[in-house]
Amino acid sequence: MTEDLTRRRLFGLAGASAAGAAGLGLSGCAPGAVKQSAALVTTTAATGQGFISRPDLTPPQITLTRHAGATSRYIFLNAPYSGPGKGGSIILDPHGKLIWFGPNTATEHRMDVNVQTYQGKPVLTWFQGILTAEGYGLGTAVIADSSYKVQHVVKAGNGLMADHHEFAITAQGTALITAYRKHAGVDLSTFNGPKSGVIVSGVAQEIDIATGKVLFEWDCYNPAHPSMGIALHESHQILQKGEGTDARPFNYVHINSITEFDSDHLLISCRNTWALYLVDKTTGKIVWRMNGKRSDFHMGPGTAYFWQHHARLHGPGLLSLFDNGANPPKQIEEHNSRGLLLNFDTTAKTVTLHKQYLHPGSPPVLSGAMGSIQTLPSGGVFVGWGTTPRFSEFSASGQLLLDGSIELHAPSYRAFSQNWDGHPTELPAVAARSRTGGGATVYASWNGATNVATWTVFAGKTAGSLAHIGTGNRTGFETAIVVQNAGPYFAVQANDRSGHALSKSAPVRIA
Questions:
Q1: Is the overall model pTM greater than 0.70, yes or no?
Q2: CB of 221 within 8 A of CB of 183?
Q3: DSSP output for 44-77
Q4: Do 275 and 292 touch, CB atoms closer than 8 A?
Q5: Within 13 Å and on the Cβ side, how many CA atoms surround 124?
Q6: Distance of CA 371 to the CA centre of its chain
């Protein structure tokens, strides 16, 4: 089998022309997909090969299996790596078809794309920067409006750069971000490391978005004030050969999420200590620890978590987090990664299991890093499985409603289900190709547009003499429309469900 045919079969295109299949949903089923309902629809968005109208966009392939009752909201993924295509930020429609792709570049990766609220309006947010070998980011946090135009770039303060693990906008118009700081001269001999080694600490900052001012900072490494920091011996991380140097600092805590507990406290997750920390914003002191070596809580059956991510509060006494359960291949504490809902009592200092969500496929899903769990208005949850390139929706009772997979080597840092209304300011894209026997195939797309229902095609002998020649229904990110007109100039117009014109492309000459 030739390399080209192997590639085409991977994307579900063997036996079909690229022109005929471009942008269309192709039937298929992800390996290990759960088939539990007769009423299911499976869609494979064959996006890895790219698009004729947008050859610059080559996102990874997505396969989606939907069951009755699945979300009608958009799906947000963050694929820092990919196989044949480029990594980047991805928005899918509820059926798994691509809506928007924000590609990575050689010097900047996008991570943690999500919809948040700023100044009363929905905004698109993400991290943009580089990822280090030690597992943290160096970059900025970005806020874009519904047209995908960047409105604010939030930078870390005090000589640091924003990390990709957290960017949360508060109701007060501030940003909670993670960052990392190097510390030299640290005794790592208890880890079989150097007596004067180098570590990176996890830093939480609250930034005023409008002014860029640092309103609060907490550094987990604070040996001068032990009540304000996390001791080295709390870490479960194993120091590897060559670590503990300036070139390879030891990441003993690995901060990975921050959320408001109340107006005076932050709840901070640290992966490598298996613990959540309640930090007082006035004093900087740790009020309590949940889980880990120094837990202040009694952890009830099934509540202990390992290498966790994405802790969030949901009213008094209820929190969610993604329990990775493993740090492969070194340490495996559980056989399944889990989405967890935990009840906690800060007076009795107890934690009990409210609900857990495990992927029902075989083999079990066990992800050593990344991951998320989002509670939904329906009462269910949306789970991103981290380094296992999958995402799932569960009902409130735990039934699998939606299951998606991303092509090999394209895990998503987090995954979300959100409402979104995208109105790009850039014009729609169009390309035209001659057909054997006459006429043309016209390819139309508009990266980020959520309201396109149909495409109107225009053709003419010159770029200034285009006339309406037909209309076709949108079939995916890129729609292929066969026309009998030879042009040689073509343009397309995007229309909404009522037939109102949204935007028109520039004219192009047939190729």
A1: yes
A2: yes
A3: EE--TT--SS-TT--PPPEEEEEETT---SEEEE
A4: yes
A5: 29
A6: 9
